[in-house]
Design a protein that fits this description.
Blueprint (H helix, E strand, L loop, with lengths): L2 E8 L5 E6 L2 E3 L6 E4 L4 E4 L1 E6 L12 H10 L2 E6 L10 H14 L3 E4 L15 H5 L7 E2 L9 H11 L5 E4 L12 E2 L2 H6 L3 E2 L1 H18 L3 E3 L5 H12 L4 E5 L1 H5 L21 H13 L4 E2 L8 H4 L16 H9 L3 H16 L16 E11 L18 E11 L2 E5 L2 E2 L2
Parallel strand pairs: 1-4, 1-5, 6-7, 7-8, 9-10, 10-13, 11-12, 13-14, 14-15
Antiparallel strand pairs: 1-2, 2-3, 5-16, 16-17, 17-18, 18-19
Helix pairs in contact: 1-2, 4-6, 6-7
The protein binds N-carbamoyl-L-aspartate (NCD) and zinc ion (2 copies).
One zinc ion binds next to loops.
Keywords: Hydrolase, Metal-binding, Pyrimidine biosynthesis, Zinc
Pathway: Pyrimidine metabolism; UMP biosynthesis via de novo pathway; (S)-dihydroorotate from bicarbonate: step 3/3
EC number: 3.5.2.3
Length: about 425
Amino acid sequence: MAYLIKGVSILGAAPTDLFIKDGVIAAPFEGAEVVDAGGLVALPGLVDVHTHLREPGREDAETVETGSRAAALGGYTAVCAMANTSPVADTAGVVEQVWRLGREAGLVDVQPIGAVTVGLAGKQMAELGAMASSAANVRIFSDDGFCVADPKLMRRALEYVKAFDGVIAQHAEEPRLTEGAQMHEGEVSTRLGLTGWPAVAEEAIIARDVLLAEHVGSRLHVCHVSTAGSVEVLRQAKARGVRVTAEVTPHHLLLTDELAAGYDPVFKVNPPLRTRKDVEALRQALLDGVIDVVATDHAPHAVQDKECEWAHARPGMLGLETALPIVLSIYGPQWELIADRMSRAPARIAGLAGHGGDLTVGSPANLTLVDPSARRVVDPSELASRSRNTPYAGMTLPGRIVATFLRGEATVLDGKAVK
Ligand SMILES: NC(=O)N[C@@H](CC(=O)O)C(=O)O
Ligand SMILES: [Zn+2]
Ligand SMILES: [Zn+2]
């Protein structure tokens, strides 16, 4: 299809017409399908470097297709699928399967992340080279869900991926400091009598890993940064020129540990929700660029894994369909900031060449149209995700994603997925 996006504001600029043909932003031409975009803002398609799609293995919680649909509805055109599936994505075969499922769904580009260690067990390095040279072209490797705790293994993995400009995305959690942990260690955990996950369990691993990355000259990416102390470690490492990037989730930018007080497991997540002081530090770090990107850590869970006793519930929350509204609610219409932290920088980290570009003639037509003046109440039953574990149920959030285009084809129109 060929489209004329009429009267759209590109990143908040004066309204203009945007033409799309043959998968790219085109020069003006006749005969296009007109999309009335008065009052809408065009952004480069969002890119998520941290998504859990659960396929293969937990198709009752999410599939590549349902997660892709949730992503498109959230304004995304590319997502990086975490490796903690069953079987684990630790071979060329599994990453190629996920990559192929993404192509078949055709709603976003699904870029598989490969595991660092066999079975995420932290003992033996997985076949990183085979995954890199597979059809899935893997560049990000992560044992997310678990920390690569062994420093020697972490060093070797960092060294190994240098050959193909890969990056190790670390879930920073010193396992000995978080045994039995249920929530952030602090005043609230003491009051509730829940075992705490101290901030230092994250900060100690980030400090170690930036030193390792510096030592071997490799790229490190830090997943879901959650504490003010982590921000300081990253600030110092970046000032020294260490090749480190970092992400923050929408929930760590908005929610605090006080929410655990009702023992509703929808608020249980790793790393845990922290304090107001941490939230403020994370917000500032994203503005400063000490934290490079917003990543959803979209973590769908089936009802029986979430609607149970707090201690038995799986950690994790949905994120794809609410990420942009949450960021808008915090930062307001800072479109340049949003485009950089949610599209340009994540595309660069993931090495996704066709994404995160400027919406200029000749570039791939990966974009999303947002109505910043609309407000919506989050209704879990309306989400496209197969799971329902959103912590934002009932909240009124700004911004409605009206349309999304992947290589010039609409994946979302009128706020609805086209397939
Ligand atoms: N964030 C979570 O609480 N859970 C994630 C794993 C992870 O990101 O660590 C999951 O896979 O469910
Ligand atoms: Zn994690
Ligand atoms: Zn995760």
